[in-house]
């Protein structure tokens, strides 16, 4: 029988990265995301205004609302709108540094990008979540209008206001996040196991290796095991 603890730890790290939308970066990238797919990489003729676009990746899923004319509205953590009014600079592709600082300070923006910038070469699922909401699906034009009205700076929360909350509100009228639900269940499962103290240390060290030595990675590595130990 497989040991459930390492498996749970791996899942926790995956969900932590998933909720902050961190993009895996190649070695030597200097913290900048790789270039997106070239214009025309995606056939946008199959997308309709108001469609919910979903990009599954190895460590996370990102969501957006298609507005037509190769434009996608999506919520991204981003520190820059809170400290700068330079719209030209803000509209540039969000780097991991901007993204992580946005998560820490709980600032974000609902921005409009091309399909290529939104998907970053990933495969795109269209209206894949409709089956979960059945009769709650709003009209396509209503979904697009809701997204357009929300474009701009917004508060951000890993658990209560992420990109999935944004799209489900626009298309289904209810802001929910199944990723958040799965994340919370995983945390509860790990906390119940005394061995999670050791596991959390390993997860913290892994995050430092992946994301670098910084307060956002070092402090959780110290405090999370302490609180788990106290809870045990």
TrEMBL record:
The keyword Transmembrane helix applies. It comes from the Eukaryota. It is a single-pass membrane protein. The keyword Lipid metabolism applies. The chain crosses the membrane at residues 197-230. GO terms for biological process: retinol metabolic process; visual perception; vitamin A metabolic process. One of its GO terms (cellular component) is endoplasmic reticulum membrane. The active site is at 163 (acyl-thioester intermediate). It is found in: Cytoplasm, Perinuclear region; Endoplasmic reticulum membrane; Late endosome; Rough endoplasmic reticulum. Residues 1-27 form the signal peptide. Its EC number is 2.3.1.135. Transfers the acyl group from the sn-1 position of phosphatidylcholine to all-trans retinol, producing all-trans retinyl esters. Retinyl esters are storage forms of vitamin A. LRAT plays a critical role in vision. It provides the all-trans retinyl ester substrates for the isomerohydrolase which processes the esters into 11-cis-retinol in the retinal pigment epithelium; due to a membrane-associated alcohol dehydrogenase, 11 cis-retinol is oxidized and converted into 11-cis-retinaldehyde which is the chromophore for rhodopsin and the cone photopigments. This is Lecithin retinol acyltransferase. It comes from Psophia crepitans. The gene is Lrat.
């Amino acid at each position: 029988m497989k040991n459930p603890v390492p498996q749970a730890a791996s899942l926790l790290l995956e969900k932590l990265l998933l909720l902050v939308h961190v993009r895996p970066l190649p070695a030597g990238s200097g913290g900048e995301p790789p270039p997106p797919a070239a214009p025309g990489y995606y056939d946008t003729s199959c997308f309709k205004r108001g469609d919910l676009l979903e990009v599954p990746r190895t460590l996370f899923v990102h969501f957006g609302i298609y507005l037509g004319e190769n434009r996608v509205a999506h919520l991204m953590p981003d520190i820059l709108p809170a400290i700068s009014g330079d719209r030209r600079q803000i509209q540039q592709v969000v780097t991991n540094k901007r993204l992580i600082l946005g998560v820490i300070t709980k600032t974000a923006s609902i921005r409009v990008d091309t399909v290529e910038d939104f998907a970053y070469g990933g495969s795109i699922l269209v209206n894949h979540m409709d089956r979960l909401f059945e009769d709650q699906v709003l009209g396509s034009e209503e979904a697009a209008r809701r997204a357009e009205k929300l474009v701009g700076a917004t508060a951000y929360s890993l658990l209560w206001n992420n990109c999935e909350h944004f799209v489900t509100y626009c298309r289904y009228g209810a802001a929910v996040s199944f990723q958040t639900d799965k994340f919370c269940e995983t945390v509860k499962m790990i906390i119940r196991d005394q061995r999670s103290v050791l596991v959390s240390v390993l997860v913290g060290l892994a995050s430092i290796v992946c994301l670098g030595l910084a307060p956002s990675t070092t402090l959780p590595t110290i405090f999370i095991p302490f609180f788990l130990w106290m809870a045990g």
